[in-house]
Specification:
This protein has 279 residues and is an alpha+beta fold. The protein has 2 domains: 111 residues, Rossmann fold, CATH 3.40.50.10330; 135 residues, Probable inorganic polyphosphate/atp-NAD kinase, domain 2 (Tumour Suppressor Smad4, Sandwich), CATH 2.60.200.30. 17% of the residues lie in helices and 38% in strands. It has 5 helices and 16 strands. Strands 1, 2, 3, 4, 5, 6, 8, 9, 13 and 16 form a 10-stranded mixed β-sheet that branches. Strands 12-11-10-7-14-15 form a 6-stranded antiparallel β-sheet, with no helix packed on it. The longest helix has 14 residues. The N and C termini lie far apart (59 Å).
């Protein structure tokens, strides 16, 4: 079996000791790339926080979606990172042998139509947010799912998330956490002006669209936490599944529940103090 080719991407702001440790583990023969150069090897090792891993993932989609992504935590949270830096050397032989399971994840493709013409487009790994923005009056959206109408939305914004993104902004806004292997597209309202609006879980292959009826000066589209463009009244935002699938290498010994507990402090017990103990 031919050994896979590797390339390394170190995120901006990554801890220098983490970066040095990963370089030493992989060896000098593994080329180091910028995000814009990544996606040519069998395995792309992305070191950093979730932002770095998502940028690498979007680059891999752009280059054909063939590379497997190996995330190594080098940021504050790194939920998308399968490995901590001190675990990489332990599992490197298994990675080279192709012994690790691959977690397939769908991404989103989106475009904004303005006056019937495409004004912007892109892809998102975690989520796309239609945000009300300054001066912070509500944004008003008329939505469709697979061509059928859904209730009009009025509020601070609306999140369209993937299963991978269900643990990010969507979870903070009260959306459901979706386990790996169950692909879905999730709509999560932000401060809806109606108690009838609740998070909605759709099949991953669903196509959704929103027509902007009212926008503010600062109303915007946010892709994986980064500003992707402004929104104006009359814009139509169309979101659907990306035609390429992302492939992440999974940690062989850490189930999803353990990742939730470790990274998000999920269901952590209270920290009790005995009566009379020092404060």
């Amino acid at each position: 079996m031919t050994s896979p080719s590797f390339e390394l991407v170190i995120g901006e702001g990554c801890d220098k000791s983490v970066a040095a440790n990963v370089r030493a583990t992989l060896g000098a023969s593994v080329p180091e790339r910028s995000v814009g150069e990544a996606g040519q090897a069998d395995i792309v090792v992305a070191v950093g926080g979730d932002g770095t891993i998502m940028r690498v993932a979007r680059r891999v989609l752009d280059t054909g979606g063939v590379s497997r992504i190996l995330g190594v935590s080098g940021g504050r949270l790194g939920f998308l990172a399968a490995f901590e830096v001190d675990e990489l050397s332990t599992h490197l032989d298994a990675i080279r042998a192709g012994a690790l399971n691959i977690e397939s994840r769908h991404a989103l493709r989106w475009r904004v139509l303005r006056g019937g013409q495409e004004a912007a487009s892109g892809c998102a790994v975690n989520d796309l947010v239609l945000a009300a923005g300054q001066p912070f009056r509500a944004i008003e959206l008329e939505g469709e799912v697979d061509g059928g109408g859904i209730p009009r939305f009025l509020g601070d914004g609306l999140i369209v998330a993937t299963s991978a993104g269900s643990t990010a902004h969507a979870a903070s806004a009260g959306g459901p956490i979706v386990a790996p292997g169950l692909e879905a597209t999730i709509l999560v309202p932000l401060a809806a002006h109606s108690l009838a609006w609740r998070p909605l879980v759709l099949p991953a292959e669903a196509s959704v669209a929103f027509t902007v009826h009212h926008a503010n000066e600062g109303s915007s589209l946010v892709e994986d936490g980064q500003l992707a463009g402004q929104l104006e009244a009359g814009d139509r935002v169309e979101v659907g599944p990306h035609f390429r699938t992302l492939r992440f290498l999974r940690h062989p010994e850490r189930p999803f529940g353990a990742t939730l507990a470790a990274k998000l402090g999920w269901a952590a017990p209270p920290s009790w103090r005995r009566p009379g103990a020092d404060a």
